[in-house]
Amino acid sequence: MITDAAFIAFAVLGIVTLGATLGAVAMRDPVHCGLALALAFCGVGGFYILLGAEFLGFIQLLVYVGAVAVLIMFVILLTRRPDSGQDTNSRGFWSALAGSGVALGVFAVLAVAISRSPSIQTATPADPEASIAAIGRMLVSSHLLPLKMIGVLLTVALIGGVLGAMQEGGKLER
Amino acid sequence: MIRKAEDSECPQPGTCSPARAAVEDRCLAGIGSSRVYPARRSLPQREESRLGGMRQGMLVGTVVLVLLAAAAVLYTIAPESLTAVAWDAMRNPDQAPVLLKHGFLDYLATAWGLSPTAIEHVSIQITISSLLAFFCLLFALTSLVERKVFARIQNRYGPNRVGPWGLFQPIADGIKMLTKEDIVPRNADKVVHLLAPVVMLVPALIVLAILPYGPGMVPIELEVGILLFFALGAVTEVAVFMAGWGSSNKYSLLGAMRAIAQMISYEMPLILAAIAVVMMTGSLSPVAIVESQEGYSMGFVPDWFVLTPWGIVGFIIFFIAAQAESNRSPFDLPEGESELVAGHLTEYSGFKYAVFFMAEYIGLFAISGLAATLFLGGWHAPLPVLDFIPGYVWFIVKLYALVLLAIWIRGTVPRIRGDQLMGFAWKFMTPMGFATIAAAATWHYAGPGPVGWLIAGALVLIPFLLLSRVFSTRYPVRTYRYSER
Amino acid sequence: MITLESFLLVSALLFALGLAAVLTRRNAIMILIGIELMLSAANLNFVAFWRFGANPEALTGVLFVLFSIAVAAAEAAVGLALIIMIYRHYRSINPLKFNVLNG
C-alpha cells in the first residue's frame, strides 16, 4: 500500500502540517494563529487518512476544524481589546528564548529516543482495515464504559459551558 | 364573473386571450374581483416579441441541426472501435457514461499503447472534468432559472435581453464579473481576503465526488462518504470566518459571525437527520444507502426513506437545515442587506465575488444531491414503469427538483429574525432530530407495517405537537388580504 | 517507503512546537492552542503505533484517538468558556495578570 505516491503525500502533508504549526505558534496576530491552527489540524487529519484511519481523519476534520478551531477564533475575537492593538504576545526576549530552548531540548530527547529504539526501526507496516463497522462494534462491546463516560463528560462540559456563559446573577447574557 | 371583452381590447391578438386581457385591465384599474389572479404571461407584450419568438425557434432549430451534423461528421471520421462503443452506449443508456468512458480508455490503451498508470490518470481526469463541466453548466443555468422564477413570483419579466429567453445572461454575467475591478480594502488582511473564496469553493467541489450519480457511477466510492460530506461542510465555516475577518469591515465581521453561529447550530439537526438514515442502512456509504432504498412495496410505492414516518420528518428537517447551511432565505440573515449590506461578502467584488457565488450554488447542488441520496432513493425511479429512464437522469431530476423547491421557498418566505433563527434550531429542529432517531429505531424493530407506522408516527408526531405548542408565540394568526374587497 | 520513525519524528516536532507555544506566549488562548497541538501530536503517535503495531485488528489506537478527540473537544469548550469568564473579570487574557492568589 505504501508506495511512491504515499511518500509524496507524506512529504506534502509533513511540510504543510509543520509549517502551519510553526505559524500557529509563532505568528503575531492571534487570528492568524487560529487560521494556521485550522490548517495544521487538516494536516494531522491527512496523516490519519494516510495511515489508513479514514474515519478518524474525517472525524478530526469535523471536530477540530469545524468546531475547535472556529471556537478558538470566536474567543480570539471576543477577547480582543480595541486599544491593545496587535500585541506581541511573547514574554520578552529572554523568557521566549528559554521557552524555545526547553521545547528544542524536549524535541532533541524525543528524536534521539526514536532513532535509538530498535523495535521502531524494524517495525513493518501491517495493512490493517479500520472499517467503521468494526469500530462501531468495539465501541458498544469492549469499550462501552469509556463511551458512556465520554457521554457523561460531554454533558458535563455542555452544562459547564452554559453556566459559564451566564452572568453571575444567573441571567443569560444579552 | 369574467366579462367577455372585445378583441380590440387585447393588445396582441395572437398571444393572449381576450378574457384574460379584460381581467388584466380591471386589475390594473382596481375594479372588480381579482380572485382570478392574472398570469404574468397575459401582461401586454410588445409586437416585436412575436417576431422574436419566431427568431428564437429558428435559432433552436439551427442549433439542433448543427449538433446533428457534427454527430454525423464525428461518426464518419471516428475509428471503427469508437463508433462501436458509441452504439454499445446507445443500446444500454443506463450505463452509457460508464461504457463510453471505458470504451475510450480501452481505445487509448490499444491504439495509443498507454500504460495502465497513464490510463488511470486519464480516467480520473475524464471523471473530474465531466463533473466540473456539468456542475458549472448547471450553475450557469440555475443562476438564470433562479432569476426567472423570482421574476415570475414577483410579477416581473426577469432577464430577457441577452439571447433567446435571456439564455445567454449567465455568459454576460460571467464576462461582467471577470472584467470588473477587483477592489481590496486598504486595511484588509490581503492573504486571508484572497484565500477565503478558494477555501469556500474547494470543499464544495470535493464533496461532489462522493455523490452516487447512478448505478456504478460514483467518482469516489468511500466507506465513510457521508462523514466526508459533513467534515468538508465544516471547513466552509472557516472560509466564512476568513472572508469576514479578512475584509476588516464591521459588517463583514458581523455577517460572518452570524453565518458561523447559524451554520454550527443547524449542523446539529442536519447530521441528526442523516444519522437516522445511517442507522437504518447500517452504513456511511452513499452507494449502500441508495441500494437499500431499491424496490417497490405493493408493486408501485417506492421503498424510499422519505415514504416512512421517520423519513418524511427527517427529510423535512434535513431540507430546512440545508437551507440554513447554505445561507439561503429564509435563513439568509448573514447577508441581510437591510442590516448588514451583504454580510461577509460586502468587500468582495469581481472574480472573488463570482467564486463565492459559485461556491454557494455548488454547495446547494451538493446538499440537494445528498438529500436525494439519503431520502429520495438516489438513482431509483419513482415508479417501476419508469425504470427505462437511466438512473443518472433520475438523480439529476431529483437534485434539481430540490433546487427549484429551494428557489421557490426563497421567493415566497420572508427572512426570519435572529433570535427566532437560533431558537428554531435549538428548541425545535434538534429535539425533532432526536425524535426522528427514536422513530427510526422503533421502525427498525417494528418493521414496515401498520404497527411500525403507528409507533414511529406517534414518536414523531407527539414531539412535534408538544414542541409546537410549548414554543408557540401565541400571536393571533394574521390574515392578509391582497387588494380584496 | 515511509517508516514508523518518520511519523514519530513529525509528531515529536508537533509536540515540541506546541510546548514552545505554551512556554513562550503570554496569551491564554495561545496556551490553549499549544495544548491542542500537543494533544494532536499524541493522537498522531497513537494512530502510527496502531498502523505499524503488532495487533492492528484490536483497533486500540483508533479507539483511543476517538475518545481523545472527544475529550479534547470538551476540554476546548470548557477552557474557552473559562477564558471568556476570566476576560470578563480581569479585562485581559494575559495569564501573568491572574495573580490574585499570589498573596
Q: How does this model look, in words?
A:
The complex is a heterotrimer of chains A (174), B (485) and C (103). Chain A has 174 residues and is mostly helical. Helices cover 74% and strands 0% of the residues of chain A. Chain A has three domains: 79 residues, Up-down Bundle (Four Helix Bundle (Hemerythrin (Met), subunit A)), CATH 1.20.120.1200; 29 residues; 44 residues. Among the domains of chain B are: 36 residues, no CATH class; 291 residues, no CATH class. Chain B contains 16 helices and two strands. In chain B, a hairpin with a 3-residue loop joins β1 and β2. Chain B is globular. The two termini of chain B are 15 Å apart. The N terminus of chain B is likely disordered. Chain C has a single domain, classed as Helix Hairpins (Orthogonal Bundle), CATH 1.10.287. Chains in contact: A-B, A-C. The interface between A and B is medium-sized, with 22 and 24 residues.
Describe the secondary structure blueprint for this structure.
The complex is a heterotrimer of chains A (174), B (485) and C (103).
Chain A: H1 4-26, H2 30-50, H3 54-78, H4 93-116, H5 118-122, H6 132-139, H7 144-165
Chain B: H1 18-29, H2 48-77, H3 80-91, H4 96-112, H5 116-153, H6 169-179, H7 190-207, H8 225-246, H9 250-281, H10 286-291, E1 296-297, E2 301-302, H11 309-325, H12 337-340, H13 350-374, H14 391-412, H15 418-446, H16 450-470
Antiparallel strand pairs in B: 1-2
Chain C: H1 4-24, H2 28-52, H3 60-90
Helix pairs in contact in C: 1-2, 2-3
